[in-house]
Design goal:
Layout lengths: L1 H37 L28 H7 L2 H5 L9 H13 L6 H8 L10 H8 L9 H4 L8 H19 L1 H4 L6 E3 L8 E8 L2 E8 L6 H9 L10 H16 L38 H12 L7 H11 L3 H4 L9 H13 L7 H17 L4
Parallel strand pairs: 1-3
Antiparallel strand pairs: 2-3
Length: 380
């Protein structure tokens, strides 16, 4: 009888513990999920519940990469995005601090290892092989070999290897079909005013065409490091601009519905022209696009993963800005390019962040580019 009583007590204790645990779980879920749907400031902005206790050092000179520092010292971001972020209040500041403090925990080793597999089995060993694989027409060149010679003195081999590494990873992630449809031309100009590079696109009754123009400063590590230290760019690598512009091309490609992608670079008669001067023949565009621009989907995805509902676009934007450490990316004009620079700089931050600096903000971008973007826009 005593034994039975003891068992009964243990059962009661066990049931009570389960009930208490369930209640605690519901309360935690409410404040991390439901409450944040009603109050965007209720979120703790934690991207992953189970993460390493180790931290990585993401700081730069004078903490130039931090969003709060940029908002305090430069009106460029808020002036450009005034329709989305009209003002920053104390709750916004607290939200940004939570987001920035949570992202510096070390990314999971599994995520890092899976990323490194993208470059462990290279498809290409030479830039000319990449140029040939990209080719989808007989009219225009893909001047990657010439581009590799623009690096700082003594850095050409490193720049070439970085380009190879990037395009191999891109091919392994998104596949041959997308790779050979992505661009119809990569052009190099000796003089390029007001910009370092740009991605150009054209849509007319023939279909859709896009290409990239690189200026003479592309590939210079000294420039990339300076822009990185100032908090303007997301990475100090000499391949930063190459990755950035390809990020634009990726978003443009993804935006087109899969059923219309047969019209990408499908009709070169008459030719669309070199990238720096596109020749439209007019007519109705028969290309259909997704309901959500991939550039905007990135902000929505990061915001929701931080526990903020899409009903609060301002707070979603602040969370996304906290995770993507690039003033250039944060300062895109809302009605002129929107979140496209944020997308491109996110792509840079994802691909070029070294292993020892991969925090939870890198891990969520890795999840976005290797899974969410592919699944949502049918890229594989």
């Amino acid at each position: 009888m005593v034994k039975t009583t003891k068992n009964l007590v243990l059962i009661i204790i066990l049931v009570s513990a389960i009930v208490a645990g369930t209640i605690i779980g519901i309360v935690v879920w409410y404040f991390t999920s439901v409450a944040s749907q009603q109050n965007p400031y209720a979120t703790n902005c934690l991207l992953y519940q189970n993460h390493s206790s180790e931290k990585v050092d993401l700081s730069r000179e004078n903490n130039s990469e931090e969003l709060l520092n940029q908002l305090a010292s430069d009106n460029l971001i808020l002036n450009n995005q005034h329709r989305v972020v009209p003002d920053i209040n104390n709750d916004d500041v607290a939200l940004i601090k939570r987001c920035e403090s949570n992202m510096i925990y070390k990314a999971s080793s599994q995520a890092v290892n899976n990323f490194n597999k993208l470059v462990s089995n290279p498809k290409f060993t030479d830039l000319r092989q990449i140029e040939q694989a990209l080719r989808n027409n007989s009219y225009y060149q893909y001047e990657l070999t010439s581009l590799s010679q623009q690096a700082d003195f003594g850095d050409q081999v490193n720049f070439k290897n970085n380009i190879l590494k990037f395009y191999n990873a891109f091919y392994n992630l998104y596949g041959q079909e997308m790779f050979e449809k992505l661009l119809y031309n990569i052009q190099i100009l000796d003089v390029l005013e007001d910009s370092i590079a740009y991605t150009n696109r054209l849509a007319d009754r023939r279909g859709f065409f896009q290409c990239i123009v690189f200026g003479p400063l592309v590939g210079q590590a000294s420039l990339s490091k300076k822009q990185y230290d100032q908090g303007w760019w997301a990475a100090p690598d000499n391949s930063e601009v190459v990755v950035h512009e390809t990020g634009h091309a990726l978003a443009n490609f993804a935006y087109i519905l899969k059923g219309s992608r047969n019209l990408i670079h499908s009709n070169f008669n008459p030719k669309p022209g070199v990238c720096s001067k596109l020749d439209s023949i007019g007519g109705d565009v028969e290309i259909y696009v997704n309901k959500v621009d991939p550039n905007d989907y990135l902000v929505k995805y990061l915001g929701e993963r931080a526990g903020i509902s899409s009903a609060f676009p301002k707070q979603q934007t602040l969370a996304a800005w906290s995770f993507v450490q690039s003033e250039y990316g944060r300062s895109g004009v809302k009605n002129y390019g929107g979140n496209s620079e944020l997308f491109a700089e996110s792509f840079v931050q994802w691909f070029l962040t070294p292993d020892d600096k991969k925090g939870l903000n890198w891990e969520i971008l890795n999840e976005f580019f290797t899974s969410a973007l592919k699944d949502n826009y049918l890229l594989s």
